[in-house]
Known about the structure:
2 domains, four-stranded mixed sheet, three-stranded antiparallel sheet
Amino acid sequence: MAESLLSESQKRASKKAQILGTKKKNRAPLIIVFLLVVLFAAGTAIFMTRTDEGESNYTAQTTQETNANYVEYPVVDFENGAARHYGYKDGNMTIRYFILKSSDGVIRAAFDACDVCWPAGKGYVQDGDVMVCRNCGRRFTSVKINEIKGGCNPAPLERNIENGKLIITVDDILEGKKYFNFPGKA
């Protein structure tokens, strides 16, 4: 009988703990999920903000000629296929763009922004033969740069090649102002 009272007493205590919410809960699954979410968020943040080795920081570029109507770059600078990032200062704004030689041998130029992700101000990073949006992670093959526009594609930048030099007019660069007028900045 003492056994039956003890087990009856244990049953009541257990039921009381359940109703009052004082029963100890196993929080291990919740903690594991929380840690996984934190690790995933940290990994994503690191990936989106990383700078690959060999990638130069944006270089404020002004005209190399005395004519202030264009900028020019020696074509040989792009032979290795590596994207080179530049910035053109216009007052207190820097209009960023990149130039690369695509896998089909064409030298291409695009603003370091797109119609969708430009407010994030993150631009693109090169990964082999593709440019990767640092904001959304979308990937664009080099042969499509300066060919396809709109959406998250890098916004095309007009360029010409003359006498071994890649030439971009300042007027064409200034067309990209809309991509670098970041919200909250003057």
